[in-house]
Amino acid sequence: MSRTIDAHVHLWNRATDPQPWIEPATMAVIDRDFSAADLRVMLADTGVDQAVVVQSSNSAGETARLLQLAVDDDAIAGVVGWLDLTGDVREQLDRIPERLRRTLVGVRHLVHIDPDENWLESAEVHRGLTALGEANLSFDLVVRWWQLESAARTAARHPELTFVLDHLGGVPDDADDLSRWEEGLRALAAHGNVSAKLSGVSAFIGGESGVGLGLVIDAAFGAFGALRLMYGSDWPLSQLGAGVLAWRGYVQDVLASVSADDRDAILGANAARLYRLDPR
């Protein structure tokens, strides 16, 4: 089996990278800092070799610190950081020292909470996305389910760029909206330059919402197929739901019914290919 890769985790030190969205009363389990040492423990517990660390704030400073962590720790296979896509992307990349730049594998912007509802389709962002493609970097899409149509239009305009959908597009917890989510998911997946992460849905384990997790996973496989899906824990946020161990176990159970090649692809090979990860 090839190396296993968790395609979506977060690390933060709130002294340098505040996380004001964390509510101590309801999110006590993640109301602390998470380090590379914590990551190594989680990977060992879940039987995974490496992880892709994803930005949690639209901050060049946070990205620089994550890149340094990736240089220092082989548990981090790469970093999906942040760049200002409305600015000069080439200039921003040139400012990153080469020893750090090699660990940057993709870029993300918090589209789902950006105050500009049309941010993703603005002319400035389209120029930035073109520059990302020229730099051989991918773009992670973190959107709400009602933004999937906008994401599909964006992917269609940039066939040369690899897009990675985080958290399956923000699955609604209302069964009445599920068909609209699936329609948007299929519209996005119709573009061959888009892949997706099986992440951010561990809260559905146990059936506490009106949406069945089995239906969600079936829709993801139907839309993307095994060669465009990646395992991601969304740790430590997954601790707010059933927890990372429960999610890892659930995915293992799902993958027990697929071929060994497809299982290897979802658990690591796809992430290595799509993020162009160096063997480390």
Give a quick precis of the structure:
The chain is built from ten helices and eight strands. It has 280 residues and is of the alpha/beta class.
Task: Walk me through the topology.
Elements: E1 5-9, H1 36-46, E2 50-54, H2 60-72, E3 76-81, H3 89-94, H4 98-101, E4 104-109, H5 123-134, E5 138-141, H6 148-157, E6 163-165, H7 175-189, E7 194-198, H8 213-224, E8 229-231, H9 244-255, H10 260-274
Parallel strand pairs: 1-2, 2-3, 3-4, 4-5, 5-6, 6-7, 7-8
Helix pairs in contact: 6-7, 7-8
Radius of gyration: 17 Å
Structural class: alpha/beta
Physical arrangement of strands within the biggest beta sheet: 1-2-3-4-5-6-7-8
DSSP E strands, number: 8
Helix/strand order, N-terminal first: EHEHEHHEHEHEHEHEHH
Profile the largest sheet.
8 strands, parallel
The rounded distance between the terminal residues' Cα atoms is: 16 Å
User: How much helicity do the residues have?
Assistant: 25-40%
Return residue spans where pLDDT drops below 50 for at least 5 consecutive residues: none
Total DSSP helices = 10
The whole-number mean of residue pLDDT values reads 95
- The proportion of residues in beta strands is 5-15%
Outline type:
globular
